Amino acid sequence: MKSLLLTTFAALALLVSPAHSAEHAEGMMRVTFKLFNKDSTATCFLLRDGADVFLVTAAHTFEKATGESSILVLREAGEEATWKRQDKTVAIREGDRPLWTKHPHQDLAVMRVVLELPEDATLPIDAVKTDGFPCFGDPVMLLTYPARVEANGAGFPLARQAVVASFPAETMEKHPEFIIDATAWDGDSGGPVFIDAGEGKPQVVGLVTARINHVENIKSERETRKIETPMGLSKALAAPLILETIRLAKNTVDVPASGR
Fold first, then answer.
1. Which of 43, 74, 88, 144 has the highest local Cβ count within 10 Å?
2. Four-way CATH pick for 22-258: 2.40.10, 3.40.50, 1.10.3470, 2.60.40
């Protein structure tokens, strides 16, 4: 009986092993980074398409950023399983000319970058969902920097779990947004929404773009106040739009943004 119990506990330990169950999350974490300058803070992730590396984020984060550069918070592995933060300056404009490519109709942008990176700091482009929405009610994860918070001094993002909260009533082409039951904060825009694709690999199914608030207009004799209360819901764009934007960027002659 004692032997049977030990065997059962050992089997359960394997099933709930954090290293096993979170392998796809760690893979996504390694390619997700903070992107900021004095006027804009966001989350981004890096996709690899052949020899090209594309930085993916929400378009409004580039548009709100002033000046010609932003800081990309990379990380470098050290000794004894330690990590060091590596801030890299990347060009986002040349004068007034944006170096990013925006989706024609959606809040999504990509930018080709030239950086010295280990292979596991970029995700292959075939890890992006190629059609439609994630399934209604399915569990998803997101990696972001809520309220600009970093997990630690190395600049890792924070992971959260959610479910797909909206059932699609139209095709992705007509309405490419879906809703997740997580509260987005400033700094979350551009963060990947992803699932476990099996064999410890992530699949990107969307990208965080905005928080959904309940808006109340409170009127009194002397003033009117607008109160916005987070509803615990956020908007995300379906992943195929990322691929559309990368195809558009590849057909555009631009200057890759380099880091220093």
1. 43
2. 2.40.10
